[in-house]
Amino acid sequence: MLNHDELLYWDKQHYWHAFTQMSEYEPLVIQRAEGVWLEDIRGRRLLDGVASMWCNIHGHAHPEINQAIVEQLNRVAHVSSLGMSNATTIELTKCLVERTPKSLECVFYSSDGSSAIEVALKLAFQYWRQCASPEPQRNLFMAVGGAYHGDTIGSVSVGGVSRFHSMFDPLLFDVVRGPCPDSFRIPIDMVAKDLVTGYLASYEDLFQKYGDRMVAVIVEPLVQGAAGMVMHPPGFLKGLSDLASRFGVLLIADEIAVGMGRTGKLWACQWEGIEPDFLCAAKGLSGGYLPLAATITTRRIWDAFLGAYSDSRSFFHGHTYGGNPLSCAAALATFSIMDRTDRIAHVGRQGKILEDLLQPLKLHPHVGDVRIRGLVAAVELVRDRSSMEGYAWAERKGWQVCEAALKRDVWLRPLGNVIIIMPPLCIEEPELEQIVEAIQYGLNQVNWND
User: Fold this and answer.
1) In whole angstroms, what is the distance from residue 169 CA to residue 163 CA?
2) Are the C-beta atoms of residues 28 and 307 closer than 8 Å to each other?
3) pTM score
4) Which of 45, 175, 230, 419 is most buried by a 10 A CB count?
5) How do the pLDDT tens digits run along the chain, 450 residues long?
6) Which of 239, 230, 235 is nearest to 183 (CA)?
7) From the centroid of its chain, how far is CA 344?
């Protein structure tokens, strides 16, 4: 076993962390966790305010999920999905089909959210080339401005956060992109208009122009995560779904961050009653324990891939650990706990508490907006409240607030000027109070004029 100093050295010098500037990284090494709490190698306890990258549902080291993994480990740890199956993955398939919108009947497994999106993009593209009435001219995808769908080449192509991905532009395929349906930073030409009508008019124009070439439109339902927890005006999702249906375009719902109860329903698309052609789930699907993702689609899509072996109509895509039994066992336990504890109702109650706790932050002169949906919340920092001008990314104001919050034993990770609050869904009021107090403390510690 490495000692503390050795751990810090190897972490700092050899472990390449995601989305992290390693020249500035200061090691934070977690050795154990329980409930909503993390504990580092020095024994310091930190409240996990971002659910370990938005994925933890029922808390760390939950005994029921732990036991499910152990029991599965004693049966079989891994079974390939290429030409064989296992009972645990089949049971999860039934569970997902029964819990997703009615039209979704077929499940393809992968290991992470980016891969789930990649699967949906490729399935949709191939569908139009081998459906009953092929339309091979369909070679464009439509995406939403400010979207983030992952870090593989396809998911980056339909993403829209240039700060993360502009380096890779030469590798990406062309995408038709509509405006970001933001309810806070509203385009000047829409200030006096109904937001949903205005945004959807822009999308209708794109459907009119490119509809016969579109493969699918992809959207993060209700909340766009990496864009800064941008929250759509009510009715936008339903309107976009109606446009896709009207123009015969497939709809991909990216529920990776907003699904599994995060917004107060199991799936965010249920708030507006839409039935997408593809629903992509990951993050909280295994309770935040093991890599697992699912792309859930319709019988219509499934049928287009059926045929004789010699026809080569199969979906030639797959990952070694897709549908891994250990991950699926964790997912089944996650759903069981969700039912037994009525976790979704709990999210509604705690979301209202968090909304009330956040109200005083609106009075801070450098808080431009506080927004919340279920247990997704964001505090956006601005240089000037009258103009809502934000700080330059390099000024790291959000980071400064979160660094100060660590002194109050709360771990948060911002997106530029936006402080994200996405705790485990099992969180209770005292911990929510601690998170908000830590943010308030952080706001008071920052030198806003430097």
Assistant:
1) 11
2) no
3) 0.97
4) 419
5) 899 999 999 999 999 999 999 999 999 999 999 999 999 999 999 999 999 999 999 999 999 999 999 999 999 999 999 999 999 999 999 999 999 999 999 999 999 999 999 999 999 999 999 999 999 999 999 999 999 999 999 999 999 998 888 999 999 999 999 999 999 988 877 765 789 999 999 999 999 999 999 999 999 999 999 999 999 999 999 999 999 999 999 999 999 999 999 999 999 999 999 999 999 999 999 999 999 999 999 999 999 999 999 999 999 999 999 999 999 999 999 999 999 999 999 999 999 999 999 999 999 999 999 999 999 999 999 999 888 999 999 999 999 999 999 999 999 999 999 999 999 999 999 999 999 999 999 999 999 986
6) 230
7) 17
If you count them, how many residues does the chain have? 450
In angstroms, the Cα distances linking 336 to 234, 237, 332 are: 31, 29, 6
**Single-letter residue type at 383:** R
